[in-house]
Structure formats: C-alpha cells, structure tokens
Amino acid sequence: MAMRDLLSAEEIEAAVGAFSAAESFCHKKFFEMVGLKKKSQEDIKKIFHILDKDQSGFIEENELKFILKGFTPNGRDLSDKETKTLLAAGDKDGDGKIGTD
C-alpha cells in the first residue's frame, strides 16, 4: 500500500511544500495539512506501517529524519533538531521510539 492510497496527493504535496525550508517543520500542522485528523484509527495505523521502514512496529529516530520522504520522494530530510522535537512529541513512554499507540 502506498501513502497516496490513503491520503490526497494534493494535500501531501501542499504539506511537504509548506515545510520545505530548513527548521520549519511543525508536526501538528503537517499532520493536519496531510489530512490525518480526518482519518480513522485503522487508516492511521496503515500510514504508521508505511513510515515504519524496518517494520519493527516502532518508528525510531533514524526513520523520523526521513519522515517527509515517507509521504513523497521529493520531501526533505528533517534536521537533527526537528527530528528530536518530533520524537519527543510522539515518544510517550520515553523509550526512544514511537509505537502505534
């Protein structure tokens, strides 16, 4: 399954484009722009599994750096600072990775 099977190509491109400048990434706004807030839990889990490149059941810091490329190949890499901010927001139990919950 591809990301564009679950989310609008137009929304993906607009969201990735909105954060093309270095140090501009805001995960809350990005996820809202791509339409995640309108998706069911089932669809969100499917998207999670697409982003979980090593299929470990978790999204680790090294995968988060490339999260925009998980939505579209022309997405930029996140900076270390942006990656750590995103990890801190999603890592609810402090284990250094983000689970599906």
UniProtKB/TrEMBL annotation:
Ligand binding (Ca(2+) 2): D91, D93, D95, K97
GO biological process, one term: inhibitory chemical synaptic transmission
MF (Gene Ontology): calcium ion binding
InterPro entries in alphabetical order: EF-hand-dom_pair (IPR011992), EF_Hand_1_Ca_BS (IPR018247), EF_hand_dom (IPR002048), Parvalbumin (IPR008080)
Binding site for Ca(2+) 1: D52, D54, S56, F58, E63
Protein name: Parvalbumin
Lineage top rank: taxon: Eukaryota
Job description of the protein: In muscle, parvalbumin is thought to be involved in relaxation after contraction. It binds two calcium ions.
Keywords assigned by UniProt, alphabetized: Calcium, Metal-binding, Repeat
EF-hand domain boundaries: 39-74, 78-101
Entry similarity comment: Belongs to the parvalbumin family.
Annotated SMART domains: EFh (SM00054)
Entry GO terms, CC: axon; cytoplasm; synapse
Keyword Calcium: yes
PANTHER family recorded: PARVALBUMIN ALPHA (PTHR11653)
